[in-house]
Amino acid sequence: MPEKIDPWSSKLEVKNYDKLLKEFGIQDFENMLKRIREPMLTMKRGIVFGHRDFDRVASAMEKKKKFVMLTGLMPSGKFHLGHKMVADEIIYLQERGARTYICVADIEAYNTRNQSLDKLRKTAIEEYLVNYIALGLKPRNCDFYFQSSRSSDPEKANAYYKLIGMVSNRTTMNEMRAIYGELTPGKIMSIFTQVADILHPELPEFEGECPVVVPVGVDQDPHIRLTRDIATRMKGNKEFDFMPPCSFYHEFMPGLKGGKMSSSDPNSYIALTDSPKAAKEKVIKYAFSGGRDTVKEHRERGGNPDIDVSYQMLRFMFEPDDSRLKKIRDDYMSGALLTGELKQFLIEKLTAFLTSHQKKRESAKKQVDKFLKK
Q1: What is the pLDDT of residues 68-97, one digit of tens each?
Q2: What gap in Å lies between CA 106 and CA 304, rounded to an integer?
Q3: pLDDT the model gives residue 174
Q4: What is the DSSP code string of 287-352?
Q5: pTM for the structure as a whole
Q6: Which of 63, 69, 294, 349 has the most Cβ atoms closer than 10 angstroms to its Cβ?
C-alpha cells in the first residue's frame, strides 16, 4: 500500500525509506556524497537519505556561487533534539556559503494551532532563535523573518505578499486535495504562504534566480512537490521566472518512547532547556530499549540497536566516532553491552552537551537583536 503523507500530522512513522524514494520519485542521497567535500555526519551515515536536485546546490558550493538555504519553524513548543538536527543542517549550509532564510510560520501556527501572534513570536525567539544562535548560527547573510511581518522594507514586503496571491493561480483544488486530502480555509492559506516562502528568495527584490534548498523531514515533501510544480508552471513568466526548489530529506529521530518525537508529549523528547538531571531521568525512565527481558537472555541473544532509542540518538548526533559507534553496536548485538550501560553512554554525552549548550544560550540571548533588526 502506498504511503500517505500528511504534513500536519504528528503520527507519521516511516518503516521503509527505500520504498518512499521509489513512491515519491526522491533521489538517493548516497550518490551525492562524492560531490560534497565535508559531508555532515548524518549524510555520511545515511540518515540524510534522499534529495531533489541537490546536485545544483553541490555545484554552487563547489564553485562558490550564490545559493539559498530556506527552512521554516513552527513556533508552538519546546525546542528539542529533533529540531537540533535541522538546526545542524542550517548551520552546516550557512558555513558553506548559503544565504540563510529562516521563516517563522506564525501565520500557519495561528491558523492551525490557535495561539496568539504575540505568544508565537515570543516562542520563536526564546526557544528557536536563541538555540539556533547557541548552536552556531551567524547573523551575516541570515534573514530571520515572520510570515506576519515579512520585512520593514516596503518593496520586499510588497513583493512577498503579492507572490502569495499570485501562486494560487497555478494550481487547482483537485490537485491540492490529491496531495493534502481534506482542506480547510486556514490550511489553504498556509499552503500558498509556504509556497511563497520557498520561492520568494528568487525574486529580484531578494536574491534573484539561484538554487534554493530546503532541508526537511519527508513529512514535508507534499509542500516541496507542489512548490516545484508551481515553479515549473511559472517558468518563462517575465515577472515570476523561478528555478524549482531543491530539497534533501532526513530520517525522523525517534522519540524517547520509540515512536515519533512529539512536541505535545514532553516525555517523548529531550528539550535543549532540560537540565542534565531531567534528561537523565527521562532516558532512564522512557528511552525505549532494544534489549531482552532479562540480563541472562540479553547476554545469550544480544539486543537490537535498530530499535533502541539510546543507540539511535548516539547514531544521529552524539557519537561522532564511527569506529566507536560500531563497537557499541557490535557489543550490544552480542550481549556484551547491557541496556543500562548503553543508556549510561548516552546520558554522559547528553550531560556534556546540555551543560555546555545552556551556557552558550545565556550568551546567545545578547545577540538576538542582531537577527531581529534585519
Answers
A1: 999 999 998 899 999 999 999 999 999 999
A2: 41
A3: 93
A4: ----S-SSHHHHHHH---TTT-HHHHHIIIII---HHHHHHHHHHHHHTSS-HHHHHHHHHHHHHH
A5: 0.92
A6: 69
User: Rounded to whole angstroms, how far apart are CA atoms 2 and 328?
Assistant: 35
Residue recorded with cell 543542517: 89
Q: Does domain 17-252 have CATH number 3.40.50.620?
A: yes
Segments of the chain scoring below 70 in pLDDT: 1-15, 374
The pLDDT assigned to 6 comes to: 61
Grid cell, residue 358, equals 545552556
Q: What CATH superfamily is the domain 266-361? A: Tyrosyl-Transfer RNA Synthetase (1.10.240.10)
Q: Which residues contact 32 (CB under 8 A, 6 or more apart)?
A: 43, 51, 54, 55, 58
CA atoms within 13 A on the CB side of 117: 7
What number of other Cβ atoms are within 10 A of residue 147's Cβ?
Answer: 24
Find residue 70's DSSP bridge partners: 101
